[in-house]
Every structure is written in structure tokens, then in C-alpha cells.
Amino acid sequence: MKSLTRRTALKQMGIAGSGLALAPSLFATDRLPEDRKLGVALVGLGNYATIMLGPALKETQHCYLAGLVTGTPAKADKWAKEYNVPQKNIYNYETFDQIADNDEIDIIYIVLPNFMHAEYTIRAAEAGKHVICEKPMALTSAECEEMIAACKKADRILSIGYRLQYERHHQEVMRLGQNKVHGPIHLIESGLAYRVRRPGIWRLDKEKGGGGAIMDLGVYCIQAARYTTGKEPISVTAQAYTYDSEWFKDIHETVMWQMEFPGGTIAHAVTSYSTYVDRHFVSAEKGWFECQPSFNGRGTSGRTHEGPMDLPQVSQQATQMDDVASSIKEKRSPLVTGEEGLTDLRLIEAILSAADNGRKVML
Ligand code: NAD
Fold it and tell me: Which of 220, 227, 231, 273 is labelled catalytic?
């Protein structure tokens, strides 16, 4: 995949979005970044770090893989060889806080199971490092607030791994939706679901994953409804279903929900750990646009009622990490801030409350 620079990408798509509101000022400066590439330490060398983030760090222009945090020495050796990471920049979960003394590491990227996000984000900020934390930001909105406060106190940037805000088709969806190119939006239908059945997996454990598919996958649909409309929902209704009680003891197997936006847009979404869905469809007054496949990390395809969106695939993760690194050098906010993650956690809490109580929740 060929990666585009942030400026080129934003120029080509004709917007410089802040994700939710179109805010050209964020990327409109011509300030030149420092020469030095910033050092990123990945914390947790599991699937996402291995398949996506490591390879993306070979493409980044403003940062590179400088450090590793892992509890598995064999993984540390393998990664150190492949990415040329010196032994002194390799930590485990006991020595993590010593990163404070390492000037080669500027950004700590938390790629751990959800229940560890808050603790490691706060410890990273206390070590004086900027933080990128994977989605969902944390298990609760209260944890998100603590993470934001810790980064503010340490005067460090906090960003969330919402890679799709850097993906060209999703940026086009933001442009079409927020600018009402095909008229006001009346209906959004989104879904992200895949089948998960593995003994011992943290995603199926409420204490570790935070509540199943809605936390893991549904959060993409919440994000997409917000950045398609550029608005915040005013109410939610929701329904939850569990048929496979052998695997789903204290989390919902499938959740469907509806978000009502000011002006009359209704977003209907579904997430599940039992079936396969990956689409984002938007119906406007004079036409429609959609991404399918939409949210997965391997590639998005988009079209409108007029035909295919002819857009390149970019490395979302490389563009995302480069934006965070540039934002640090340029002393500005990254495209995705911690507040984005907090807003989504508050919405997840409202959706689960609506599903559990069978009542509309006003926001
Ligand atoms: P994973 O299970 O493959 O990796 C988790 C890593 O954490 C493993 O290396 C594991 O050894 C380590 N770990 C350390 N302490 C642990 C503990 N106490 N229990 C369990 N694991 C522990 O998970 P993943 O799929 O890489 O997901 C990691 C994070 O990244 C999650 O928050 C997930 O939501 C997020 N993610 C984001 C995307 C995206 O597209 N942005 C994609 C996949 C995953």
C-alpha cells in the first residue's frame, strides 16, 4: 500500500476534517516539522501490533518503532531483530515505568486488552510520554475522564487509535455527509460483526473486554454515525439478544441500536460476535453513498448512487501515527483526541442502558 502524506491526502479529498467537524485550520499551516523522527514504543505485541502497527511503522515519515513493551522475551527478540530495536529500549510490564528515563521514546502506543488501557495510559503520561491508546478507549467513561486528566496534568498528547478517520473512503463519507452534498441525511445503516468463539479469549470476558462486540466493534459504527453527520446524537434506543448462552454468559451476543440526531437523521446500527457484517450505508435526500467492506483494517471500498468512489488505499495506521507525531512537533492537537474516545464510551453506556431497560435514553 502506498501511503500519502497527510497534506496530500487532505488536499485531494478537499477537506481537512477534525473527524467530526470539518476544520481546515488544523492542517492548513505550513510549519515545517523538526527533522527528528519521534520514537514510538508499542505496548503489547499481540495481533494488531504484529499485523498492522509494526508494518505501518516501516512506512511512517515522522516516527519510527523505537521501543517495545512485552511480557514475552521470545517476542522481544523477534521484534528487536526485525525492527532493529536496541536491547536498552525493551521493557516488560514490571520495568514499564523506567521508560521515563529513555529519551529515545516520545510516544507510547497502548495495544493491550481493553481492561489495561486506562492503567497504562495513565502510567505512560506519568512517565512524561505522549500516548496513543487503542479503541475502545477504556472500559468506562469514568476511566476515560481519568486518562484525559492524567495526560492534561502531564502536558502530553492523548490520541485514540481511530484509524478510519485517516482512511480515504471514510474521509469522503465525512465530506459528503457533513457538506450535505446529496442533501440532508435521513438514514444511516451501519454494521460491524464477526464471529468470536475461543476459550479464554479476553474479548469474551466482561471484566477484560468491557462488554463484548459493542465495545470492540460497535464503537466503529458509533464513530461513523457521528463523523458522517458531524453531529452528536440526542437520544438512543437499543435491543440486545443472546441465544448462545454457552459462550455469552454476562455479555450480549448481538446489540442493535438507533441514534437520533438533531435535524431528523436516524442511524440504525448492529454489532455481534456471531455473524459477519461490515457496511456503512448513508441515505440522503437526493442520493446515497456507502462503504462495503467498510470498517475492517484491510481495505475499504466505497460507492455512491453515481458510481464507485475512485480513491486510493492508504496505510491508515501510518497516516494516523504520522499525524500524532506531527502534532507533537507542531504543538497542535492530533486529528483524534482523547475526548473522541470519551464521547463514544458515554454513548456505549447509554446504548447498554437503553438495551437493558428497554427505554429511550435522552442524551
Ligand atoms: P491480542 O490479544 O492479540 O493482543 C493483546 C496483547 O496484550 C498480547 O500480546 C498479550 O500478550 C498482551 N497482554 C499483556 N498483558 C495481558 C493480560 N493480562 N491479558 C491478556 N493479554 C495481555 O489483542 P489485539 O487484537 O491485538 O487487540 C489489542 C487492542 O487493540 C484492543 O484494545 C483492541 O480493541 C485493539 N484493536 C484495534 C484494532 C484497530 O483496527 N484499531 C484492531 C484490532 C485490535
Answer: 220
| Ligand 1 atom 43 nearest Cα | 48
Task: Determine the atom of ligand 1 nearest the C-alpha atom of 114.
Answer: 32
Low pLDDT (below 70) residues in the chain: 1-34
Contact residues for 264 (Cβ-Cβ < 8 A; gap 6+):
184, 186
Cell numbers for 233? 446524537
Helices (H), 93-167: 117-126, 141-153
Query: Quick check: 25 and 51 in contact, CB under 8 A?
Result: no
> Which of 42, 45, 48, 194 for a ligand 1 pocket mutation test, highest count of atoms within 8 Å of Cβ?
48
pLDDT at 16 (0 to 100): 37
255/248 Cα distance (integer angstroms): 12
- Cis upstream peptide for 184 (omega within 30°): no
129, 135, 231, 329: the catalytic one is 135
User: CB atoms < 10 A from the CB of 83, how many?
Assistant: 17
Looking only at the bridges linking them, the beta strands covering 287-291 and 90-91 are unpaired
Instruction: Please choose from 111, 220, 345 the residue to mutate so as to test ligand 1's pocket, defined by most ligand atoms within 8 A of CB.
Output: 111
Those residues whose C-beta lies under 8 Å from the C-beta of residue 152, and which sit 6 or more positions away, are none
* Closest to 12 (Cα-Cα) out of 2, 20, 21: 2
φ, ψ dihedrals at 36, nearest 5°: -70, 135
> What is the Cα Rg of the chain in Å?
20
CA angle 164, 215, 21 (to 5 degrees): 40
Residue 34 has a pLDDT of 62
Could you tell me if 286 and 185 are in contact, meaning their C-beta atoms sit under 8 angstroms apart?
A: no
Report in angstroms the alpha-carbon separations of 192 from 230, 254, 260, 271: 20, 11, 19, 5
